[in-house]
């Protein structure tokens, strides 16, 4: 059986304007990611990694080119339908976490459940508790994220992205604020999800160990896909 195509990007170009000058954040980027695949995206700061994730994560539609997620042309969806599609299909772990400061930890994790989700809310609450427990934050459900450390907030953001078990997980430096041991635990959690649920994992990272855990590495430089040979990473055990 051939694997299902999760992400199909053709000739993506994203140009920003900064002080009247164009910034070519992505230039003619094409890539495909299959269900169950684990892909790392690497490249220097400013290479266009977060820009690419924002497109794949259906958060930015100001691009040229074509982007399909599970066969759905993202450009063809009106705003509301796009939000709904994103909420169910794509878990997004932001580089800056993006927790809502006026909501508690538990409310943040449960946020995806509040957008027209037809799942049992008691079950989702249970799942939220379980995820926080898995991440060593079992007793923090009622705490405010402003009272937490960066690494703790990062784990809350990961729990939120996993709540609805989306078939695609897009992660921008998911372990950037974590110590080595916690980072390797989180990475293992993501790998387990990939294997158990056939989730497509797309992980932006500067950490060679995190990149090495992926099945494939895509390197960006100045907004273009380049050979990943310049980013040698030790292969981890299969
Ligand atoms: N909203 C924006 N307006 C103008 N320029 C932008 C905007 N967003 C990103 N850029 C520019 O696009 C380029 C790519 O930025 P991007 O955030 O994708 O880099 P990155 O690879 O994620 O870097 P890092 O590793 O530092 O997170 C940079 O030159 C950045 O300054
Ligand atoms: Mg970035």
Walk me through the structure.
This protein is an alpha/beta fold and 238 residues long. It has a single domain (5-230), classed as P-loop containing nucleotide triphosphate hydrolases (Rossmann fold, 3-Layer(aba) Sandwich), CATH 3.40.50.300. The chain has helices at 49-56, 79-89, 105-109, 121-134, 150-162, 180-197, 208-212; strands spanning 5-18, 21-34, 38-42, 64-69, 72-73, 90-93, 168-172, 200-204, 216-221, 224-226. Strands 6-7-8-3-9-10 form a 6-stranded mixed beta sheet, with helices on both faces. The chain has a 4-stranded antiparallel beta sheet with strand order 2-1-4-5, with helices on one face. Residues 234-238 have low confidence and may be disordered. The protein binds adenosine-5'-triphosphate and magnesium ion (MG). Magnesium ion is lined by residues 49-50, 95, 172. Adenosine-5'-triphosphate binds at residues 16, 18, 23, 25, 43, 45-51, 95.
Feature tags:
binds adenosine-5'-triphosphate, globular, alpha/beta, 27% strand, 4-stranded antiparallel sheet, disordered C terminus, 7 helices, Rossmann fold, 238 residues, binds magnesium ion, 31% helix, single chain, 6-stranded mixed sheet
């Amino acid at each position: 059986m051939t694997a299902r195509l999760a992400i199909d990007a053709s000739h993506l170009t994203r140009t920003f304007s900064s002080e009247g000058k164009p910034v070519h954040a992505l230039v003619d980027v094409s890539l495909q990611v299959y269900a169950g695949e684990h892909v790392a995206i690497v490249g220097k700061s400013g290479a266009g990694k977060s820009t690419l994730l924002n497109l794949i994560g259906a958060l930015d539609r100001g691009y040229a080119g074509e982007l399909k997620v599970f066969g759905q042309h993202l450009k063809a969806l009106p705003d509301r339908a796009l939000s709904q599609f994103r909420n169910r299909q794509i878990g997004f772990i932001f580089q800056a976490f993006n927790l809502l400061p006026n909501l508690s930890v538990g409310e943040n994790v449960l946020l995806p459940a509040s957008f027209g989700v037809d799942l049992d809310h008691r079950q989702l609450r249970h799942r939220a508790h379980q995820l926080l427990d898995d991440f060593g934050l079992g007793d923090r459900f009622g705490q405010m994220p402003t009272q937490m450390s960066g690494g703790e907030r990062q784990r809350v953001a990961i729990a939120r992205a996993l709540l609805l078990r989306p078939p695609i997980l897009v992660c921008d430096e998911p372990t950037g604020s974590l110590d080595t041991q916690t980072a390797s635990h989180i990475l293992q959690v993501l790998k387990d999800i990939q294997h158990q649920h056939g989730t497509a994992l797309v992980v932006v990272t500067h950490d060679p160990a995190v990149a090495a855990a992926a099945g494939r590495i895509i390197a960006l430089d100045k907004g273009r896909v380049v050979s990943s040979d310049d980013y040698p990473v030790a292969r981890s055990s299969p």
